[in-house]
Design a protein that fits this description.
The strands form 2 sheets. Strands 2, 4, 5, 6, 9, 10 and 11 form a 7-stranded mixed beta sheet that branches. A 4-stranded antiparallel beta sheet has the order 1-3-8-7, with no helix packed on it. By secondary structure, it is mainly β. A hairpin with a 4-residue loop joins strand 7 and strand 8. 0% of the residues lie in helices and 53% in strands. It is globular and about 40 Å long.
Amino acid sequence: VQLVESGGGLVQPGGSLRLSCVASGLTFRWYRMSWYRQAPGKERELVASITSGGDSANYSDSVKGRFTISRDNAKNTVYLQMNSLKPEDTAVYYCYAVCVHTYWGQGTQVTVSS
């Protein structure tokens, strides 16, 4: 099983990024998918989560209204659209899949700085 994130980078405050996570080796449509992040010196925290069918999502209070999680089960991909980015959004962002088993991606760095 592999979860491969991409789309991270350096962006100015107020900017946008779109993260992608492509899954392989699992039946993607069975899995609830989430994005987590971990900033230096802090614990990993849940950012957003989406049901296996994509019909429901939830967000942490810190990103609600700015980030949108979505998925394309035909492409085995989950996305995180991040708008109005703030310096405090700087972190490594991880993709997480959960069903009977759980899997993590390797992470992608997002840096918000002027």
